[in-house]
Write a structure and sequence with these properties.
alpha+beta; OB fold (Dihydrolipoamide Acetyltransferase, E2P); five-stranded antiparallel beta sheet
Length: about 160
Amino acid sequence: MNRTVIAAVLAALVSACTTTSPDVISRDDANRMSSVVDATVLSTRAVTVDGKQSGLGATAGGVVGGIAGSSVGGRRESVVVGVLGAVAGAVIGNAVERSSTHESAQEILVQLRNGERRAIVQATGQEVLKAGDPVIIVTTGGKVRVTKAPAGTAAAPAAPRN
């Protein structure tokens, strides 16, 4: 039984270690050709990407809470306290998973060379993007990230003035 609890807790912890950072590339995206589009940053703003609730945190918390609660008191009390411990553990485990998987991010509004505008939300990375920066939009397997354009790359034309 202890191995099951340890496995559930480890699974919840591992799921909390995922990121959408533009500085971290998924193993599945390595060695794949990506499309690249030139653009110019129009604006950025800080946002928060909500944490995920896969159920692993609630499951792990419920198992731990149930086991801890069932060891309290006599036979009848241990059942009641075990059920209450499982419910409380599930609620706490879910909250821990959700709070540990949310990320600071930025919404980046860009203008492509053809004049179209796009908004992209990505986790805050090491690069600081600001209005007027020439950037490239890299698309790999349906995932998009924005990064500064390499030196010598022509910037997208400025936004038309009305």
